[in-house]
Amino acid sequence: MHFTNEDYKNYLYKLAEIKKYDWVQSHLKSKGVPNFWTILEYGEHTTYGKRSSHEIRTSRMLRWLIDANETHQLGNIFAHKLMDSIGVTYAFNPEENPKIKATAEEMDIDVFYKDLSKKVYLAIELKQYAKEGKYEDDSSQLDKYESLVEEMIEREERSIDPYYIYLTPEKDEPSNDHWHALGYQDLIEMIEDILKNYLSESLHNYASDTRKILQDFKYDLKRSLDYASKRANVISDLLTAEEKYLTSALANEIEHEMESTYYDQLMEVNQGQLSKLRDVILIAKEYIYVQDHSPNDRIRVLIRKIYNYLSKERELDIDNLVEYSRKKTTTPLKDELRESFNLSFDRIEITGGKGQGLYLIDEDSRFQVYLSGEANGDFPNDHIHLLPCSKKDHFRYNTSKLDNRLFNLDNPFIYEDQVQFKKEDRIIPFQQLMTDYILPAAKELNDKGKSLV
Fold first, then answer.
1. Residue 148: which H helix or E strand, with range?
2. pLDDT digits (tens, 9 = 90+) for 24-73
3. Which residues pair with residue 54 across a beta bridge?
4. Which of 137, 328, 411, 415 shows the greatest Cβ crowding within 10 Å of its Cβ?
5. pLDDT in tens, 68-103
6. Residue 428, number of CB atoms within 10 A of its CB
């Protein structure tokens, strides 16, 4: 994509406006301070799209904090505070307790706390930016986890009281009434209270280390809360689609020390007028989109948009990404598309699992076309290709209508019905992707399939 000097001047003006925000100033100031969490992220691509590892680290940090037997030497203070936050009386004990155990990701639950001396279980489900997982029958992840905890209690064959916390940056309400909503601000206040009243004068061996870890964790929670807060929309709203693309491209050059396509030109126009330019760009990149859309989610959205474009009878949810079984996504292909392209495909369906692929299936179930995307956002990731429906037959043909990995969804423009065309370094409309690439590929492979059977 080409940008003129005037484009760069306008872009620099907007970066200067972004830099004025108090919370941006706070982030710029903090970048000069060593922080455990940012060191963990060093070298990682940390846009909203790729923060799942961050969720895992946060859940493990919580597990460490609530385990009375860990090296922080704080006893069960965090479990006590968490219970108190949901209205449950649970006494503070500063000592280690072998009957307490906290695990990460047990039964897929992010944090699971057991205190058999008090006959208490506490399950914590953490969502950083993604929404609560929903299934097509309207049940949720939380329903599933509650059932798993109940089954565990039955196996224990003793009376145990289970409690449930749904932890999100902005204290989202869970769909299951047995789960208590907790927000990052609540957790931040707990940390501040513990720093002030339990660690400020502590003389235990690792008190200073624990203080530093908690301070870093508190900062990271605040940063995550900024990501999720609606005020972060101001950056997304301020920048045009082209400027968002430029922001992502500049950040990519900065983070990966790539040969400069855009940054050198921006520096020439800037001439030292805007200080901390690199940091402002990186902050703007992180805040372009408030929601968490991982590369997998973007591919899933793309596949669903393709599905909805082709489908005659049904549309799949784009916003919530509820999970569908493959059979339940089977739907007829639009009649007008079959007629316009003289296709023998009569139905389509989404792949099972993560739903990152799609099949177009011949009316006599003789052959099918498969297309899919990759975890890093590339599409298609294995060519759009023709396969037999029967396992007895063996053939495969790739389309010649578009190259493998010709498009990329690392930039989340798919939510605005746009995709990045890598070959020409530009953004194209989703409609053009369908009419100029995917449908011609389907037609080519359809004709190939008919000639084989």
1. helix 141-156
2. 887 787 766 666 666 555 444 333 333 455 677 888 899 999 999 998 88
3. none
4. 411
5. 999 888 899 999 999 999 999 999 998 888 888 888
6. 16
